[in-house]
Amino acid sequence: MLSKDILKGVEIIFKSSNYHDDIEIDYLSENTNDIKPNTCLICIKGTKHDAHELLSTLKTNPVLIIASKQIITDIPYIIVADTLQYLPLICRNFFSDPSKKLSLIGVTGTDGKTTTALIIKQLLDEKCAYIGTNGYMIHKQHHKTSLTTPKPIMLNSYLDEAVKNNIDYVSLEVSSQGIEYHRLDYLQFKAAIFTNISHEHLDYHKTIENYFYAKLKLFKMLDKNSLAIVNLDCKPYAEEIIKNTKAKVITYGKDIHSDFQITNIKLSLQHTTFDLITSKEIYPNISLNLFGEYNVYNATAALAVLNALGYNLQEIIPKLQYLNEIEGRMHFVNCGQPFDVIVDFAHTPNALENLLSNIRKVFTNNIIIVFGAAGERDKTKRPLMGEVADKYANTIILTSEDPKSEATLDIINDIAKGINNIFKVIIIPNRKKAIIKAIDLAQKDDVVIITGKGNEEYEIFNGYIVQHNDITTVEDHLQNNYSSLLLTNFSEV
Length: 493
Hints:
Layout lengths: L2 H4 L5 E4 L11 E3 L9 E4 L21 E4 L9 E4 L2 H12 L8 E6 L4 H12 L3 E5 L2 E4 L2 E3 L8 H13 L4 E5 L2 H5 L10 E4 L7 H4 L2 H13 L6 E5 L5 H8 L3 E6 L6 E8 L4 E6 L4 E7 L4 H16 L4 H4 L14 E2 L7 E5 L4 H14 L4 E5 L9 H12 L2 E4 L9 H9 L8 E3 L3 H11 L5 E5 L6 E4 L2 E4 L2 H23 L1
Parallel strand pairs: 2-3, 3-4, 4-5, 6-10, 6-11, 7-10, 11-12, 12-13, 13-14, 18-22, 19-20, 19-22, 20-21
Antiparallel strand pairs: 1-5, 7-8, 8-9, 14-15, 15-16, 17-18, 23-24
Helix pairs in contact: 2-4, 3-9, 7-8, 11-12, 12-13, 14-15
């Protein structure tokens, strides 16, 4: 693609004397270490590095540089007011506006984004791709990603690949920071789902109001031909979205005024059942093979958007009982032990409250929980999580969870401030040892819950990445102690 084509709509402040409109561009990058033939490098000032200051370290030269301040180079370049804001427009141009050729479904909220987006992906099957916390999924391929909402170059390249693979829908997790960093600008959404707002990311947004208004921007992006699927139970934020979007609004929740009203939820470990009331029909005893009331909300949001997109509820509701497990969410590990072990991603006060309150409804024995809190993130949520654990758990093991530059014991101390019964608490900073301790403490019919990391593969300490996976740690310890019991059980069947 020619440089003049990728710059359509971009206000150029300055052009170097050797710039011309017919520079051939085959690749976009914002990374000075990722330069391929015919690359256009867009210089972004990040929180830790500024690409403008790294041009002298280039090992391979791009054919064009787009900057937002004066640079000294022999490479053709242009200057724009803000490269971060223009990057998504440049990406849209380069990839020929891929979102316009798809039905893009954005899912935003504090909790439930991943599960809701993946339920949509499963219900639509091969017609739908997924982009979010659990990676990028298209057809049978699964690629890991580092961000919930990828940066514009990667995001638009995924959308472009979806178009080339004849995908009709893309289910996309939309983070508040993804919105604030302009990653979604110039994308065309067919629908957006609002799951909820609770205490999270206040290290970045400072207030819950700022956090919400970041989410609200997604719904302001929608036009009158789009859909806004809103959790009506999350007041007053639901009303704000309804007032501020041009899209057709469809609501869901327990509220009797919801377009998709949830009633009669019944929990068991194997599945969850509920009734759904719409303006046209009542759908009784829906079977969902995911645990918890919160997953009923996630599933209902998926049903609401697909129904609005033209799918028959009678045909898609039965699929809810055959969903695959959402990776890293409510994962049961069974190696023959006489107690339950659950690994879950819950890492906010609201998610932890939902998880533990639902588990307490079906478990009468001891709950042993292992968790921590991420470093360099919202510190105010830490004592709130401690308070939730104190409310439901019999034993609380506090440990590390990506402390980054913070001291693990400082984070643990913040959590402990919310725990009244300090005699419940065991402090083991090493996460692997904490998990092993929890399993060793468990007695018959107890439940061990390990939260915060789900299926993640590492922890971060002061810039160092240490390999760790909660599920693997649990499996290894259980197999060493209980696998023979599992084999005995099988032989008796």
